[in-house]
């Protein structure tokens, strides 16, 4: 699991910045959340391959949408909920905001501001002030009043999303009782002062009437659908990996003892040993795990990460190669594979893999960093400058991005694809001045 600073859209609505927020990009977690979301998105008439479920590193529970391409969940929302069905009800509610067209007003606000970066690399990510202190900044300047306007929905929209969410869950064969669990967690928030409310309650106000209406929806739509073992597995897997990387290793090992799913238990132990810098022990646990799940690309990827960060570069390349063979189109696995090849002193091979990763998803600053290094090591300084420019742009450092984009544009063939990408960075930098 990697934490990275990701600028998806820079909104400068006023001079007061939000606290730093960090996006987690992890192939395994994103896949697990995607498995939970897929039947819901299909029931909502949305394309599961287009709508991503992305994770914000904040222990304060929240969830939101800002455009039709992504649903954002805080780690605190995932870890606070007790069942897959509860998390799926949150996903269904946010999907309803997309499917029901509730984002039109928000999009108009964005367009009217005329200060959104024009790189075409954005999912539009403004994050509610959660009080969490991330390790890097999404460069957003949003006053609290503008922020509430941007993230909140009207009562009619909330009611509409509640009813649609329950229908999606029932149509997907998922128990709707999870919606009551979510309401039980946040009920009573309306009587607290706004400063004391959870961000999710601020942007999704839970009135008594709304709770009663939800209970009626649940009794009407599929309240008797049994819980799903498959959904529970993916929920526990995502939750366990978040826990293992966020909590102290001792706590993770203690929690792993209570886990009754064998592969998840071993995964938690491996991460705990890895975070204690016990690379050999962590790799050994992963080898045991992979005997029972030899075709699980995400576990091969985790073994590769453990070995790479333990500076066992040759073995890391082999683990990542196996993961990439199993899932050749997964951009995060390809990015890790390229990083391992680069560390192992194979820049030409790394370049091919990293270019493949970038062609599929160019929103990963970490992959762009490695790509720039691969270009530099293979004697392509102009392309190296372009990769650095795009990485800085994604991280919100548009002044630095402009410097490197100018350097790249001056060396690249005029009118070529890479030259045009450099122009996109320059245009974005100019708009932000």
TrEMBL record:
Its cofactor is Zn(2+). Its EC number is 3.4.-.-. TPR repeats lie at residues 297-330. The keyword Nucleus does not apply. GO terms for cellular component: membrane. InterPro entries: Mito/Outer_Membr_Metalloprot (IPR051156), Peptidase_M48 (IPR001915), TPR-like_helical_dom_sf (IPR011990), TPR_rpt (IPR019734). SUPFAM superfamilies: TPR-like (SSF48452). Binds 1 zinc ion per subunit. Transmembrane segments: none annotated. Gene3D superfamilies: Metalloproteases ('zincins'), catalytic domain (3.30.2010.10), Tetratricopeptide repeat domain (1.25.40.10). This is Beta-barrel assembly-enhancing protease. It comes from Planktotalea frisia.
């Amino acid at each position: 699991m990697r934490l990275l600073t990701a600028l998806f859209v820079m909104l400068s609505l006023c001079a007061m910045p939000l606290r730093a927020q960090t996006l987690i990009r992890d192939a395994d977690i994103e896949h697990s959340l995607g498995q939970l979301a897929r039947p819901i998105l299909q029931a909502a008439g949305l394309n599961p391959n287009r709508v991503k479920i992305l994770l914000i590193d904040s222990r304060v529970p929240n969830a939101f949408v800002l455009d039709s391409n992504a649903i954002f969940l805080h780690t605190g929302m995932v870890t606070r909920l007790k069942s897959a069905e509860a998390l799926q009800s949150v996903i269904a509610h946010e999907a309803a905001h997309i499917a029901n067209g509730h984002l039109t007003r928000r999009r108009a606000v964005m367009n009217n501001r005329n200060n959104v970066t024009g790189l075409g690399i954005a999912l539009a990510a403004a994050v509610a002030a959660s009080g969490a202190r991330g390790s890097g900044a999404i460069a957003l300047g949003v006053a609290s009043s503008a922020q509430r306007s941007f993230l909140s929905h009207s009562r009619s929209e909330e009611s509409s999303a509640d009813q649609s969410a329950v229908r999606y869950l029932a149509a997907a064969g998922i128990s709707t009782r999870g919606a009551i669990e979510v309401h039980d967690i946040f009920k009573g928030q309306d009587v607290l002062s706004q400063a004391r409310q959870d961000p999710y309650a601020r942007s999704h106000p839970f009135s008594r009437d709304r709770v009663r209406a939800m209970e009626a929806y649940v009794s009407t739509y599929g309240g008797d659908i049994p819980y799903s073992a498959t959904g529970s597995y993916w929920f526990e897997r995502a939750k366990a990996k978040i826990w293992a990387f966020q909590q102290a290793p001792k706590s993770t090992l203690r929690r792993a003892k209570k886990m009754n799913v064998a592969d998840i238990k071993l995964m938690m132990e491996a991460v705990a040993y890895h975070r204690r810098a016990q690379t050999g022990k962590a790799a050994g646990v992963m080898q045991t795990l992979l005997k029972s799940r030899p075709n699980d690309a995400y576990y091969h990827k985790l073994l590769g990460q453990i070995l790479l960060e333990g500076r066992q570069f040759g073995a890391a390349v082999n683990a990542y190669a196996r993961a990439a063979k199993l899932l050749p189109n997964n951009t995060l696995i390809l990015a890790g594979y390229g990083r391992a090849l680069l560390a192992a002193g194979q820049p030409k091979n790394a370049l091919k893999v990293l270019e493949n990763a970038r062609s599929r998803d160019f929103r990963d600053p970490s992959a762009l960093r490695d790509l720039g290094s691969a270009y530099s090591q293979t004697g392509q300084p102009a392309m190296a400058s372009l990769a650095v420019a795009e990485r800085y742009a994604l991280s919100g450092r548009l002044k630095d991005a402009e410097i490197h984009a100018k350097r790249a544009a001056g060396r690249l063939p005029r009118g070529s694809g890479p030259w045009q990408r450099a122009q996109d960075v320059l245009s974005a930098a100019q708009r932000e001045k």
